[in-house]
Amino acid sequence: MDFTKHPFGLPASNPKANIVNTILKENYLCQKENRISNACGIVSIVLKLCFDAVDVPVSIKYGILKFINKMRLPHVWLDFQGHILDNTFMVYQDEDTFIKIKTMGVCEYEEGTGNTEHLFLGDQDNRRLGIPDHNKNEFQVLLKRPESTMTIAVRNMPHIGAYYHRMREIMDRQFKVSIKNFFDRSADTKCWACDGEKPTEELKKCSVCKVACYCDKTCQKKDWKEHKHVCWKPESA
């Protein structure tokens, strides 16, 4: 894959191309290695953490991928100074075909506006292709509360945890920077509802995901409206 081509990376002429495309390449390979498929939201958050650590300002975009055959797929990607960066790996796609589709101008990225309902009309195309539906509420919570959502994902989903651990190693080895350690349970000192701080042992854990922390049942009940969409049970390794 050529990471200097749209939408996989920045053109070689861009001053930030070397550092940006190196991170994108490593991240893409990490996804393949750990079978991280169609996880555009998680991948975009991880990449933003990586780019923030090396002072490359990117923003996360949320919308649909439109194809010339009128197929529409919900999607999340990054934007760097007007450049689309789409780094999501998909296991079910033939990679050569996938690359051709993305680089030949047969699809376009449409950022969401105030009405998010239309972004998920593409789920009927997902089902036809055998791709699981995207959960609109899950996406919205993930993008609104990226760090708390990532904490659950890396601890409760072994493949996500392995992928994120590897990216932390790469950023440390190649760029001498650290990205947030979501594995550190000793850092769980803040209520997810009110942001109040307490010693770890005094906070109550969600009985389902066993990650989210709360001062008491009142705070937990207050947070449930959003937390329920990303309250993922621990998976076995």
TrEMBL record:
Which residue numbers delimit the MYND-type domain?
191-231
Q: Which keywords annotate this record?
A: Metal-binding, Methyltransferase, Transferase, Zinc, Zinc-finger
Recorded GO MF terms: methyltransferase activity; zinc ion binding
GO biological processes: methylation
Q: Which SUPFAM superfamilies match?
A: HIT/MYND zinc finger-like
Q: What is this protein called?
A: Histone-lysine N-methyltransferase ASHR1
